[in-house]
Amino acid sequence: MRRIVAVSGVGPDDVVLEVGPGLGSLTLGLLEVADRVVAVEIDELLAGELPRTVAERLPDRADRLDVVTADAMRVTELPATPTAVVANLPYNVAVPVLLHLLATFPEWQRGLVMVQAEVADRISAAPGSKIYGIPSVKTAWYAEASRAGSVSPTVFWPVPNVDSGLVALRRREPPATTASREDVFALVDAAFGQRRKMLRSALSGFVGSSAAAVEALEAAGVDPQARGEVLDVTAFARIAEQLGRTR
């Protein structure tokens, strides 16, 4: 836990948003170095125990903890504005939770999340990789993502059957485009819905015809015979912008 806190770069001026604190081991590590921790926990029993755990083990920092009992995929308000996110995300919903936090709380500028190793690779994958896909592109809309280490299953209790990976996130401005995020993301979903197909075919149903897809792709400076896995988020934004102009 202390290694994760150190890698996160969190300091005394940070308000850290933590998701799924569980028994509080990471929470305690964060409270040792951060100004405040806002912990979002869906389980009422765990959420109720967390303040008591902190009060017993780190009494001089107990007043710096806020616990929000809520589903992290639905929370829209927090008692303090986060500057960073450090979390061991629930593996079955890691990507949706991460994208929700990026979209809903734009104030945080950097983060470090622990997810299943395979998911960590996908989130941080670059265009051209076989594992580059929807999580890679949508995360890149908000932030630069990179692998920041691995975590052995043996440090967990109970011991999981999967390896874990750390992903570092640094917020950046989204692509400069007149297309909305929703339009870009819908386009990304369509492009990777049939990722083995060339874009002119993969997008034909999305735009109405193969000819319309070719027209938009060429206008955006994208080869219609390319596949979605070679395009970065900026290219998807250009395509969405062209589609918006033809509708």
Automatic annotation (TrEMBL):
Record: residues binding S-adenosyl-L-methionine: 1, 20, 41, 71, 88
Enzyme class: transferase
Domain spans labelled Ribosomal RNA adenine methylase transferase N-terminal: 2-173
Catalytic activity of the protein: adenosine(1518)/adenosine(1519) in 16S rRNA + 4 S-adenosyl-L-methionine = N(6)-dimethyladenosine(1518)/N(6)-dimethyladenosine(1519) in 16S rRNA + 4 S-adenosyl-L-homocysteine + 4 H(+)
Domain of life: Bacteria
EC number, UniProt record: 2.1.1.182
Annotated compartments: Cytoplasm
Keywords: Cytoplasm, Methyltransferase, RNA-binding, rRNA processing, S-adenosyl-L-methionine, Transferase
Keyword flag Methyltransferase: yes
Family recorded in the similarity comment: Belongs to the class I-like SAM-binding methyltransferase superfamily. rRNA adenine N(6)-methyltransferase family. RsmA subfamily.
Function: Specifically dimethylates two adjacent adenosines (A1518 and A1519) in the loop of a conserved hairpin near the 3'-end of 16S rRNA in the 30S particle. May play a critical role in biogenesis of 30S subunits.
Name listed for the protein in its UniProt record: Ribosomal RNA small subunit methyltransferase A
Lineage: Bacteria, Bacillati, Actinomycetota, Actinomycetes, Propionibacteriales
Gene behind this protein: rsmA
